[in-house]
Amino acid sequence: GDDIQDLESDRRRGSRTMFTEGAAQGNLDRVTNQTFQFAQTVMAEMAELETTTPALVEMLARSSRTLLIRSASNLPQHYRPGYLEKLERYSPFRFDYLREREKRFGDRHRVYAKLFEQVTEADWAGLADCDW
User: Does the predicted model carry a pTM greater than 0.85?
Assistant: First the structure.
């Protein structure tokens, strides 16, 4: 999901990910399907671990699917319309709503991200010493 979100910046930097390569070959339908299938396999194998609870597996599976779906909805130019229509059926929100929300709150998010990036490693290291 993160690689889908970072697709354009990764392409500008020349980073090669499954998604930058998929975009260069046409659309992202196939690589996104492969990612869903991989996540499903990982979740099935995770469910077999003794230390894993069904609730944890379900929460991780749901959040990973949601991230992939939401990320794909923000890059409609990289998907066939029919693919996005099918994908939207699995989304709790319409894609138009998600894109509008992203546009409306995107500027605020960028400001927060810049502030977050300005925190130094020394600042983060101080967190370990906090007596919460």
Answer: no
Cα 34 to Cα 40, 41, 95, distances in angstroms: 10, 10, 21
Place of tokens 């599976």: 61
Give residue-wise pLDDT tens across range 101-113: 877 776 666 666 6
What would the 3-class secondary structure string for the chain be?
CHHHHCHHHHHHHCCCCHHHHHHHHCCCHHHHHHHHHHHHHHHHHHHCCCCCCHHHHHHHHHHHHHHHHHHHHCCHHHCCHHHHHHHHCCCCCCHHHHHHHHHHHHHHHHHHHHHHHCCCHHHHHHHHCCCC
Identity of the amino acid at 17: T
d(CA 72, CA 53): 29
